Amino acid sequence: MIDTSKHQGQRKQLVDQLKDKGINDTKVLDAIATVPRHLFMDPALEEYSYLDKAFPIAAGQTISQPYTVAFQTQLLKVKKGEKVLEIGTGSGYQASILVNLGAKLYTIERQQELYKKASRLLNNLSLKPKKTIFQDGTLGLAEYSPYDAIIVTAAAETVPKTFLDQLSVGGRLVVPVGKNSQKMIRYIKIKENKIKREVFGNFRFVPLLKNKA
Ligand code: SAH
Q: Which domain holds residue 148?
């Protein structure tokens, strides 16, 4: 669990790159500057931790590109103390950014190996989600709903209505939608029966898959 001044310097440079690419939420940039991404990487790839790229982790999955993490987090507009659901814990990096921002986070992962690894790491770093859950998240997580924000970190072909049902009024859902490449979509529940939908840029995610692995 070593975080050196070299790592910190590399994070500052990464933050500058994200600013150049249009990320302007200072809380999000501060979180990226604080959380040691290298601890979430495959140890063999540690030296690349602060490149703005996605990398393979275990179980054929990926740790998202920092720009993507920052972009999704910025769209989510999480305030301290809000209840947030993440679908696709993966490495736990996106989760750690949300916890750093003060979210009460529920995070779901369908791959047992990743669920175990990320739970342990987040615990050791004292960036504890409220709950890490080993489950299929394709229908969200009704048990603890409604959420102030829901973030999906794998590509959905369509958006299940259950995700929208699980938002509180004022709640935001950020989800990449599409088959081969995805558009980032944000839904905001303006009133109980009124949803606003906004479409952002193109991204590439691993697919949202059904059932536990
Ligand atoms: N947020 C992660 C990104 C990981 S990639 C990070 O910061 O590293 C997407 C993750 O979604 C993968 O780990 C994959 O196993 C998981 N996933 C895919 N379908 C899922 C589902 N139905 N329920 C829960 N997790 C799922």
A: 54-203
